[in-house]
Amino acid sequence: MREATEVLQSALQRDDGGIAVVWCPDLGLRDWLVSEVDSLAPTGARPLRTDSVAEAIAAEDRMALLVPIDETEAVLDLDGSRDKVIAESRMRKYPLVLFLVRNGDGARALAEKAPSLSSWIGGSDADPEDIANIDIQAERQRFAERTGQTPDAWLAAWRAGGIPRTGDKYALAYFAMLLEGAERA
Amino acid sequence: MKDWIALYKQHRARRGNAGEALGSSLRNALVRLADQGICAASIQGRFTNRKSGRLREWYIASDTGREPLALPGMKHAFLTVLALADSRTHHVHQFTAMLEGHGADDATWVVAVHLEDDRAPPAHDRKGSGACGHAALHCHVGRSLEVQPQVRVPLPNIGPAEALEWLLSVVVPKWEPAPWPAVVAALDERSDKL
After folding, report:
1. Looking at the partner chain, which of A28, A31, A39 has a beta carbon nearest the beta carbon of B88?
2. Which of A104, A139, B98, B183 is the most exposed place for a label (fewest CB within 10 A)?
3. Sheet of A125-126: strands edge to edge?
4. For the segment A102-115, what is each residue's pLDDT rounded down to a tens digit?
């Protein structure tokens, strides 16, 4: 199973001085994803949150977290500044991270109006919320293979105090609760 | 009884306060551990999350969900950090931080913080007989979590990241998130001198 945070971290590390895109499912979760990326910054990166493309490009010695007010404008500005960004990417130690809403205006602008920027970003993008969604049936089966019980049966024994309270068992219990929640839904 | 009721209400209200910083604040504490050489640097990316519907689980990705720590005074030490939260509102349903291992004398030893699950039927986070003996947010210290009598100490109105910091302050030398000079400076700023 691919871990959401490791995939996000890989996208951030793929091109140190380049541009990485983090796809957000909607505006409601965007600030949360900004906070996640902030906590994944390497030591010394001093993340800078900004809505200004110019400010993000100018922050050569910092990890710029570009959270645009107008996504289309930001994508087109970045596309227009591509040569400048490439030239300065040699000086840049950390990526410029652009937050865009999945299937939003910025995504459309990137696909339809900024092909060179899109090609430059290449694989340096991640949709951590999408990756975080587990395949319930597959994970329930894996859980049963690992423990010999369904998540519900295992949790019943856990809640009855029949399983030792050790760290590895707590980890199993939390995962079983995630799978149990799915079963109720 | 009034104070126990007030503490329960504070714990309940606090669940919604960690907000979107829940994962990042816990990760920041783990990164500080790695910076001190106490755990692997890769923990920054391995402290991760997965979700099912509205429920998001925070955990350390590893074979057992536990992270080995190199701690002075302990032969073996393993840290577990877990949380269940609402993936939209970030309301914290349940939290566990636990350090277990063997001390220098080979005896088993554990310190743990628990915020009880507020979704669990039938009594939600109201476990045990009352809010004093089984506070919603409490800690354990002892040979194991099974040894009787179980020592369950109520914790004050702190969030998951602060609870993890407290746990680490028990075992990590010089781990002090609120050193006295900083506390005194903060008091001075508020003209609230000791």
Report:
1. A28
2. B183
3. A48-50, A64-66, A96-101, A19-24, A125-126
4. 999 999 999 999 98
